[in-house]
Design goal:
six-stranded mixed beta sheet, 359 residues, 11 helices, single chain, 20% strand, alpha/beta, 15 strands
Amino acid sequence: MSKKIIFFLLTVILALAGCTNEQAQPKTTTTTSKTETKTVNVSNETLPKDLEVALVMQMSIGTFSSQYIEGVTEQVEAFGGNVKVYNAENDLSKMASYVDTATTQGVDVILIDHGRADALKEPVQRALDKGIKVVAFDNDLTNEGVTVIDQDDYSLAWRSLKALAEDLDGEGNIVTIWVGGFTPMERRHTIYDAFLKRYPGIQEVAKFGSATNNTALDTQSQMEAILKKYPEGEIDAVFAMWDEFAKGASRAIKQAGRDEIAVYGIDLSDEDLQLMQEEGSPWKVTAATDPAEIGRIQVRYAYQKVVGEETPSIHSVDPYLVDRDVLPNEPVTMDDLGQYVPGWGESNAAWSDWMKETD
């Protein structure tokens, strides 16, 4: 109970720290911290135009990543800047090298996607020491001056798992798909451990997962082997901690005709929605945020830093539960979800008045 209270209080504090008061003058932004109120005057002459932005990614796999990149690119270009994407292909040492490369090239902003602090803390500090603004997504960096955005992975995992538990009425056999080495995955697994203790009637019969260049296809092959090992009636559900896992598992289950198995996932993209809406799809529920909006929020925080606004150290994006049963019969995209999932796509995070003049 004490941990829940801590999480709740942290969420409230961060929400208050990130609030921005609207001003009468459209290009004057007021931001409030715990200790002071700072007003930043932005004129046409001082608008941050032509900024060079480096996006350093641990890896770029699947449509979630592609939509996230689209969100970053769209927002930077709307502000008149330029983006260069560095894909480290799941090599943390290469990722650290890319941060140093961007620093040496003298970019204005470095955006970081995933990665780990033990590999990136020092190169990120070198960037900060050069005056480069840094905003990270799904990372455990704690360098002073860095804003870290996350999807509230604890809530993502709990929402999906709670739906699974309710549908199974607290009893059943599940297969879990997970891989370590990624900050969001490990946060999700923390909740999974607690979930198994909360619902002792739900048993894990198999667990696997790996991150490769063909994660969905590899997952499909591994799931096919699991289905052969556990015949009909021995698996009730699959909990997939990444949409690439959910895609592979869903295709294997559907092709095997195992319609008694439901898939509960995390993350969402247009491709995922299409798969969820297919006739006979086992993918029933996913907990998600909008990857494109995460990219846009990350860029807006970076630009706020450039003009000297106060920004929070942490920002958690509110997740939503998307249930296939609430979707219409016709195909939908991420842009349509707000019609069926209340609150989806309504984020106003990190907006400053002067940005509305350039957007």
